[in-house]
């Protein structure tokens, strides 16, 4: 231990003794600058365990549906050439609603229009098993949506 380490330890120890005697401690002052809010995100996970090959086909179609609608397209096919300029369309929007008995469930928050930011697909879970044609008997998907709108207190009052 150097002499400086010893001095620092004594000073810190002295501060603690003074704090004990006064019944107050000195806390570091932290300032927080509010720089705005981000967009809300929502994640959903689903496990599909089809009981037959036709149901497995339906699960495959559901996965493909989400994959297709989360991706943009090239706006003009001639722009996707070798000149390095590419323009893409905005991916499809999703309107998510929580339902209860064919009506919007008013006990859960509303969600503004979203984009599907990412999707993870796990075919077969821990151990892959498939039907005779190779379709998996278990498929898990995780979907991550982000709202386009930034929320405020007024939105919360409206149920968002």
Characteristics of this structure?
160 residues, two-stranded antiparallel ribbon, alpha+beta, 3 helices, 27% helix
Explain the overall architecture.
This protein is an alpha+beta fold. 27% of the residues lie in helices and 19% in strands. The strands form two sheets. A three-stranded antiparallel β-sheet has the order 1-5-4, with helices on one face. The chain is elongated. The termini are far apart. The mean pLDDT is 83.
Compute the separation of the termini in Å: 58 Å
Tell how many strands the DSSP assignment holds: 5
Strand content: 15-25%
Number of helices, where a helix is a run of at least 4 consecutive DSSP H or I residues = 3
Dominant shape? elongated
**Major β-sheet annotation:** 3 strands, antiparallel
| Biggest sheet: strand arrangement | 1-5-4
Order of helices and strands: HEHEEEEH
Can you give the mean pLDDT?
A: 83
